[in-house]
Amino acid sequence: MNAILSWAKSNLVIVILMAVAIVALPVGWFFSSGMNKNLRESRTNQVQGAKSQLDNVSQVEYSDINDGFGGQPVSLSSAPHDQLTQVFAQRRQQQEQEIRKVVEAVQVIGHESRDMLVDGLFPKAPEDVTQRNSLLNQMVKELEWRGANDRTSAYGRLLSMVRAGTPPDGAMLGERLNDLKATETTRIQQSGNQLTPDDEDAIADKLIGVRLGQYKLRADELSTYMQQDAFLYTNDARVPPFAPNTYGRIPKYEECFVWQYDYWILRDVLRAVVKANSNENGEPTSVPDSTVKRITRVLQNRSDYLTLIEKAEADKANGQAGSMMEITFGLESEQLEPDYTESVSGRVLSNGLYETRLVDITVIASFAKLPKLFEAINTTGIMSIVGMQMEAVDIEKDLNQGFYYGDEYVVQVELNIEVVYQRSWFSQYIPDSIKEVIGMPVEKPEENFEDIG
Known about the structure:
Blueprint: H1 2-10, H2 12-58, E1 60-63, E2 75-78, H3 82-110, H4 129-142, H5 154-161, E3 164-165, H6 170-190, H7 197-221, E4 224-226, E5 231-232, H8 253-276, E6 292-300, H9 304-317, E7 354-366, H10 370-378, E8 383-391, H11 395-400, E9 410-422, H12 423-426, H13 432-437
Parallel strand pairs: 3-4, 4-6, 5-6
Antiparallel strand pairs: 1-2, 6-7, 7-9, 8-9
């Protein structure tokens, strides 16, 4: 033992180093274990984060286009896949082509000529009062009804467009039949015979045949029946068509524009009738072969323009700001969300892109050809049928009045039509005074600056 202590004392440095080494082994193991745990957790978190990022990158959102035609866009979250990418790319390309066709069709409609009833009146009337009043009075003359055979006034031209007219004149036909009856009676009596019941029946049958023949001849000359009283607007006597020389005052400028606008609406609705009453070659049909055999009523709702102007004038007189229609004007590419609370079509009635006018038309039509009428309406301008009522027709009563419809079964149909007019189609004709009350931008004239250079 003494020998060991003596050696330890003489080799103290070695002994100390051995002790340190022995103690360091468990201490090092303890601290290294803790460090390894922290390192493992850190590395695990890094790997999981990287994996999450890779998972997110590997999920691709596939979707087609919300075309605005009522359908819901298809969307899918999936890992990148060549076939899925190709399918959705083709679908989007197809939708873009369909949308482009619709846009082009709307542009074609917008570029169609909109005949002006009076040239030089819109969008800015002459400043000279005499010239201005002359054009305003001319508008009234254009909208006067000049008789059953009128084809020169605005409404007369519409009747001419649809090849419409009235049955044979009852008084004139009655005189002709009376003359024929007298002639036949005289012929029998001059032969020395008394007029028998059989003779009277034969004369009556001949008169019926002649009368029906005249009805058929007239029906062959027309595509549809339509009379002056079919054009209705409201019960207001100040709206067209006017009886000649009855208006009695110079109309307001804005009032004349509303009449012009109404004329465009009526013309477009009747253009659909022309299409329905055409054969496969685009040629007009006669009444017996027509889809629409008679138009008994055309009623359109009153434009908001005059109401807004009247309210703005009243507000101005009371020291208030002029009223404006609550609409927002934006880009024509703006998509409007459907609103089925206003219309079954989902169209928003008041907006900055288009105006919606409602027209009720009552017709007597071939029941079998009603789909052709519906198709004609849906493919003329931008119109939709939003309501319909149907009832039977007293054919015998109508025939006694001269209306010959042919051999087809006919029904009376009342159609509620929604007519859409994009504002850009006719904004160049709208007077500034109307633009102001509907909140439409008014182009201000450029100021002339004197060149001082």
